[in-house]
Amino acid sequence: MRAMLLIGFWVLLITGCTSQPAASAPDASRQGDAELAMDAAQANLDQFINAIESGDGQDFAVQTFIDEEGSTKNFWVTGVTLDSDQFTGTVEEGVASLQTGQQWTVAKGDVLDWKYLRNDQVIRPSTQASE
Question: How far apart are CA 44 and CA 48, in angstroms?
Fold first, then answer.
């Protein structure tokens, strides 16, 4: 029985990896990628918080979102500090009703992505050292 389950798993894995996506899959793929990035950001948020608290890095930033006029806009908040489980910094680039340089506070649960600079490397949740 165990062997049959393993064989079934491998068949599904192999056929899943070789199938061609439907024509509308790029949008679904991007949405899936965004969800994976957010999951990684949330799963590794303690690493980001530890780096802020220990001063082990610089240029701390979080990506978050705002819902406006029926659509969701993502944007970066830079120069973040941590206070009472919230990140506060400045809006990097104006989006929707927000202006560049405006102060913004982000709850931990609203972090879509994060990054910081350590030893001239950009540290991100999914890559740990990239760009």
Answer: 7
| Cβ-contact 130, 122 below 8 angstroms | yes
pLDDT of residue 3: 43
Class of 36-123 in CATH? mainly beta
* Token code pair at residue 11: 């068949």
Q: Are 92 and 77 in contact (CB under 8 A)?
A: yes
Domain ranges of the chain: 36-123
Q: Residues 21-63: pLDDT tens digits? A: 344 444 445 556 677 778 888 999 999 999 999 999 999 999 9
The model's pTM is 0.70
CA–CA separation, 94 and 1 (whole Å): 58
